[in-house]
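Re-run with default settings, no changes from the original entry. Doing this only to confirm the output is reproducible before filing.
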Amino acid sequence: TGSALHIDHMRDWNDGEYVCQVTNGVGQMTSSVCTLRVKRPAKEPTVAHSDAGGVVGRVALLIGNSEYQCENILKKLPCAERDVHAVSEALGLLGFVTFVYVNLNFREMVEAICRFLKLLGKGMFPVFFFGGHGQVSSAGDTYMIPVDSSGYKLARCIRVEAVRYEMQLTKCRLCLLLVDTCRVFDDGGMEKRADLTELERVDFAIQCSSLKGQTTTEGMAADNSNYTTTLLKVLEPEEVKTCNSVPAFLDRVAKECKEVIPVCRRVLSRSGDVKLTDKLSAGSGGMQEADKSSVV
């Protein structure tokens, strides 16, 4: 009949497969599938150079997902965007150069993480921070949900443990991951994920704002989430100086969190006596070509 589908103001959620179906008195016919891929320029981060002059070897990637597109399942998180900017400022006072992204879809999250990995090298101290919706698989892996997710579907999420593994491959002195997200169970739509081989040098620390299978809260009319509010308190320069190691720092955050949220999960491996205030080596550049498939 000459009819055509017009999509005004193209958005990420228009990405997908389309068919045309015609029905009349004779019968029904369906066209072959037409795949539409929505492309847009890669997001650039807000780069903040340290107010402390920049301590060589300290870099941080911060992602805050607030504007979720599937609002009937994933509510908007006003605190997430504010959280990443506040943590970026706090890390800047400690000598970190920070890269801040907000409201990333699946492809943008993968690209941002891979770009960050290329900056890392031997002897460095990278920090990764995520604020947004999340979930946990029955295997115990934590997943971060992009803003274009249709719900709690692990197949289109980023696995925290895979990000940690790729950070370790760069032979950094210590990798610190801070994840402010719920960790509810849902294996729906999940394909088999490759097991991660344990590395000989396991220098990392991960802290999540909730236990496996539980939720966390944003806080009542606060500028930041409950976890981030506590994290910022302990990140203050004078407070950080009282922590003689990263494990001690995370212990302090966990202890303080108990007053405002039920639990604060902590996973540690050998991280020695590295401090957030240590001076580290420059490194020699990390992975020249990060494998996008490995971080999901």
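The helical segments are 78-93, 106-117, 160-169, 226-235, 237-240, 246-257. The chain is about 20% helix and 20% strand.
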